[in-house]
Design goal:
single chain, alpha+beta, two-stranded antiparallel ribbon, 5 strands
């Protein structure tokens, strides 16, 4: 009887240890790397990048926005803001979509674009902005923007192949999947992210 009790207690203790170790491992898998990323830049690099932009592209963009707005506006977009919760939600969303389709999500590609002159939010009209899109590997092409909403199981569809249906010839000829046509006739959903707070005017 005593031996049976000892065996039962030993089994019980070992079971608890086994399951607690397993649960600890699962917890560790969810811990994110919080070290400084290798892509982080110095203030010296940042200052030189802003200087290059301010003395080059920004001048051209300011002239463009002045002309496009017929003098009502003279400062091009200098930043776009997404809250941390919006970014986290977007990442969780594309991770879920990719997992459901058994597609390896490799990252997020950020494309430069601009709101059209007739955009529904007046303050955004003609403003430069960014479009974030999920990426994967398609064949031998690495980190291609793709559309999980249109992809099949383990069969990613390049965002460009869908975008070409909406885009004019100028956009189709650019080697990226970023701009939507000014004449958006169809209203298909996409998994791309946009409409962050632009500055200026905010």
């Amino acid at each position: 009887m005593k031996t049976k009790l000892i065996r039962l207690l030993t089994f019980f203790v070992l079971s608890i240890l086994f399951f607690s170790c397993k649960s600890e491992l699962k917890h560790e898998e969810h811990i994110q790397n919080s070290e400084r990323p290798v892509q982080a830049i110095s203030y010296t690099e940042m200052a030189s990048m802003f200087k290059e932009y301010d003395n080059g592209q920004r001048i051209v963009l300011n002239e463009y926005i002045t002309k496009k707005s017929k003098g009502k506006d003279s400062v091009a977009t200098i930043s776009q803001f997404f809250s941390l919760s919006e970014i986290k939600q977007y990442i969780a969303y594309i991770e879920r979509l990719s997992k459901e389709k058994d597609i390896d999500l490799t990252g997020i590609r950020i494309f430069t674009s601009a709101y059209p002159s007739d955009y529904k939010i007046k303050e955004y009209q003609n403003r430069m902005c960014f479009i974030l899109a999920p990426t994967t590997n398609i064949g031998d092409q690495k980190n291609i923007a793709y559309e999980p909403l249109k992809s099949g199981k383990s069969k990613p569809v390049a965002m460009k192949s869908i975008l070409d249906k909406y885009a004019d010839e100028t956009t189709r000829n650019v080697n990226r999947a970023s701009l939507f046509s000014l004449k958006l006739a169809l209203r298909d959903s996409s998994s791309a992210l946009n409409r962050g707070e632009v500055n200026p005017p905010n």
